Amino acid sequence: YSSSMGRCVQCHFSTHCKRHRSFRLQHRNSLSRSLWLNEHVLHHYRPPKMPASLCIQSIFHWTNETINIWSHLLGFIYFTYCQFERQFISLPLIGASSTEHIVVSLSLFGSQMCMFLSATFHIFGCQSARSRQQYLQMDLFGISAGILSMYITGIYTSFFCFETHLRSYLAVLLCLFLITGIVPFRKDSLDAKVIGSRIGWVHIIYSLVILFGLCPSIHWIFLHGGFEHPHVVEWFPSVLIVYSLTGAAFFFYVSMFPERIRPGKFDLVGCSHQWWHLLILAAMVSWQSSSIQLLTYYHSNDQICQSFAPTPPFHSNHSNHSYHT
Q: What family is reported (predicted)?
C-alpha cells in the first residue's frame, strides 16, 4: 500500500486484491482459452488466481457468470425446500409408503446435487485451467445425478401399477447410474470432440441416456391402451413439456445462439449457456411437480391400479391408505 499515492498498489496494478476484496473484469483475450465460456463471449470475465473467498464474493457482482451462478444456486435452494416439504407435508398427507418417501427423497437429492455442483463450477471455475477441469468433472457428475433424479420418479410413477416392469426399469436405471457416474471422470471424456463441433463424447452419451427415456414413455402409453386412454391424455403433456424444455436447452448449448450471431453483445444477459441453465432448471421443476401430482393422484384413487394391473408394486399397503384433505 502506498500512502503517498493514497491508493493500493495491488489494486492498481493487479487483476485482483485480496486485501481490499476487489477485482477487475477481463477480456477473453487476456485469459487462457480453457477459461472461456465460449469463443463468442468476449467480456466481463473474472480474473484467474482469485482466492476462494473472492470467488464467493464475486457472485454478488455483475459478471458473465452471474446468471449461470444464481439460476442454479436458487434452484438448489428451491429443491432443498421441496425436500423438506415433500417429506414432512405432501407425502404424509397422502399416506405415502416408506418406499415412496425414499424415491422422492433420492430424486430431489439428485436435483439438489445437479444444481449445487453446477453453481460451484461457475463460482470457482475461474481460478485456473486445472481447477476448472476438476470442477467441470463434478458439474458433469451433477448432470448425471440430475438426469437420473428425473428418471427415478418418472419410472416409479409411470409403472406404479406394474411391479414387474418397474423392477426391470429400476435395474436398467442402476446400470445407467454406473455409466453416467463414471464417464465424467475418464481422462478423455472432456477432450474428445466430434470433428467440427463443440459436442464431445460425453454429450453424446448424455443425449443417448435422455433419449432412452422414450422407451419407458412409449411402453407406458402401450400399457395404458394408447393415446386415447384418459390417463395418458391427462399425463402425457407433462412428458412433452420436459422433452421440449430439455430439447430447447440442448439447442442453445450446441448452437451457441444468440452470441454466435453477435459476439460480445450477450455476454451479461442472454447468452446460450444462460438459456441452457434456465431451461434445465425449468424442466426439473416441472418434472418434480408433475411427479408429486401423479403420486397424489394414485393415492387419491385407491382402485386405480385394478384397471391397469392386479398388483401394485412395493406398496401393498396402498389400498389401506386414505387420502386426507
A: Belongs to the ADIPOR family.
User: What span, in angstroms and rounded, lies between the C-alpha atoms of 67 and 278?
Assistant: 9
Cα-trace Rg, the chain = 23
> In this structure, what C-alpha cell is assigned to residue 104?
422422492
- Of 58, 73, 108, the position where a domain reaches its end is 58
Binding residues for Zn(2+): 122, 273, 277
Rounded Cα–Cα distance for residues 291 and 274 (Å)? 26
C-alpha cell at position 234: 391427462
Taking only the tens place, the pLDDT of each residue in 106-147 is 999 999 999 999 999 999 999 999 999 999 999 999 999 999
In-domain check, residue 142: yes
Instruction: Give the C-alpha separation, 138 to 131, whole Å.
Output: 11
More confident residue, 16 or 197: 16
pLDDT at 198: 59
Beta bridge partners of 22: 17
Q: 126: number of CA atoms within 13 Å, CB side? A: 32
Given 6, 38, 58, the domain boundary residue is 58
CA distances from 227 to 204, 224, 241 (A): 30, 8, 16
Mean pLDDT of 160-164: 91
Binding residues: 122, 273, 277
